[in-house]
Structure formats: structure tokens, C-alpha cells
């Protein structure tokens, strides 16, 4: 039977090394599977990587968000995977041995740049959503679903809390702006519920 490392272990690999390209993750997984006397299956690897990406346990960033790119024999890439605040990483016990064998170094991620992207995206989504809620509240024939609207609000609320993962003390005012927009969103949503 072919087994594969868990989602949490794959997230632990990425968290430990800061940012990894797909080829690097694959090589690390192959080495861990070898140490565990387990066969490697590329299809299972691809499925697992797609799964953690679709569940937003990791994010894909370009190299401009990495403070220092270490050249490796595993090649470089336009995109690197980083851990997301939604993940619950578990470090595979074999990882330190694999890091030594492959001579890998941790990459530092520019959290300030990533925070700016996430904050801007969240603000834009909030503005768009608030406009949609205003349109719904003004137009009684507007087609909408309360559960969908609540789901979108919940997603934006979770994004706001995830921003804390990337923020530092210099970004408190931006977080407060997002919090104020969320309060407006909550009031608009409540007015639609009681309509």
C-alpha cells in the first residue's frame, strides 16, 4: 500500500523552511517517504499539494516577497508556497535529517509586503461587499440569499483575523480600518435580515 505524508506534515515542512517551491517540497517528501520505507507516488503528492492549496492552508507567493532567495540544486521558481494562518503544521520527525541531506536553508518571508497584499485585498472585498449589501437594502427586488451573504461575511471576518498573523505593531491603524468596515458590513447585513 502506498501512503503519503499528512497535510499537516506538508504544512510543517513549508513552515520550517519559510518558503518552498513545488520541486523542493516534492524532493523533501520523497526523502521522508524513503526514510519511512514508504513508496512515493507523484499523483498522491500532486493531490495533497492541490488539497492544501484549495483549503488555503498554504499560499502561493512570488519570489519578490521573499527576503533572500537561496539558490538550490532543486531549481528556482516563480512561485513559492508559504504557510497560511489557517494551517495546523506538524513537523515530520525526519525533517531535520532531510534538511541536512539536501542542504536546504530557511527562507525569510517579507511579512510586511504580504500583510499589505492581504490587507488591500480584504479592504477591496469589504468595499465591494458593502456596496452589494447597500444595493440589496435599497432594492426590494434584488435577488439574494441570507446564508450566502452570511457566508461571505464570515469569510471576510476570518480574513481580518488572519491578517493578525502577518501584521506588526506598525499596522494597527490599517487593521482598525478593516475592523470599522466589518462593523459597517455587520450592520448592513443585520438590516437586510430584518427587512
The best one-word shape is elongated
Q: Compute the number of strand runs.
A: 2
DSSP helical segment count: 7
Structural class of the helix and strand makeup? mainly alpha
Tally of structural domains: 2
CATH class of the largest domain: Mainly Alpha
Measured on Cα atoms, how large is the radius of gyration?
A: 21 Å
Write the CATH architecture name of the largest domain.
Orthogonal Bundle
Helical fraction equals: 55-70%
* CATH fold type of the largest domain: Arc Repressor Mutant, subunit A
**What is the mean pLDDT?**
88
Major beta sheet summary = 2 strands, antiparallel
Would you mind describing this structure in some detail?
It is elongated and about 65 Å long. The protein starts with 6 loop residues before the first helix and ends with a helix. The protein is 60% helix and 5% strand. Helix 5 (111-138) packs parallel to helix 7 (172-193). The protein has 195 residues and is mainly alpha-helical. The chain has two domains: 7-102, Arc Repressor Mutant, subunit A (Orthogonal Bundle); 111-193, no CATH class. It has helices spanning 7-17, 22-35, 42-54, 95-102, 111-138, 146-166, 172-193; strands at residues 58-62, 79-83. It has a two-stranded antiparallel ribbon. It is built from seven helices and two strands. Pfam families: DUF7109 (PF23421). InterPro entries: DUF7109.
Amino acid at each position: 500500500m502506498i501512503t503519503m505524508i499528512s497535510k499537516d506534515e506538508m504544512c510543517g515542512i513549508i513552515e520550517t523552511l519559510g518558503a518552498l517551491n513545488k520541486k523542493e517540497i516534492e524532493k523533501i517528501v520523497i526523502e521522508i517517504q524513503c526514510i519511512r520505507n514508504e513508496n512515493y507516488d507523484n499523483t498522491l503528492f500532486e493531490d495533497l499539494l492541490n488539497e492544501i492549496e484549495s483549503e488555503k492552508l498554504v499560499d502561493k507567493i512570488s519570489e519578490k516577497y521573499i527576503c533572500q532567495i537561496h539558490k538550490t540544486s532543486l531549481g528556482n521558481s516563480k512561485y513559492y508556497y508559504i504557510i497560511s494562518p489557517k494551517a495546523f503544521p506538524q513537523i515530520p520527525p525526519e525533517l531535520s535529517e532531510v534538511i541536512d541531506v539536501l542542504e536546504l536553508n530557511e527562507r525569510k518571508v517579507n511579512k510586511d509586503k504580504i500583510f499589505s497584499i492581504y490587507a488591500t485585498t480584504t479592504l477591496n472585498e469589504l468595499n465591494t461587499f458593502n456596496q452589494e449589501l447597500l444595493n440589496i437594502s435599497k432594492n426590494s427586488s434584488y435577488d439574494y440569499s441570507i446564508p450566502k451573504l452570511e457566508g461571505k461575511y464570515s469569510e471576510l471576518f476570518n480574513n481580518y483575523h488572519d491578517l493578525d498573523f502577518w501584521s506588526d505593531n506598525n499596522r494597527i491603524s490599517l487593521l482598525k480600518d478593516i475592523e470599522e468596515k466589518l462593523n459597517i458590513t455587520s450592520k448592513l447585513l443585520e438590516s437586510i435580515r430584518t427587512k
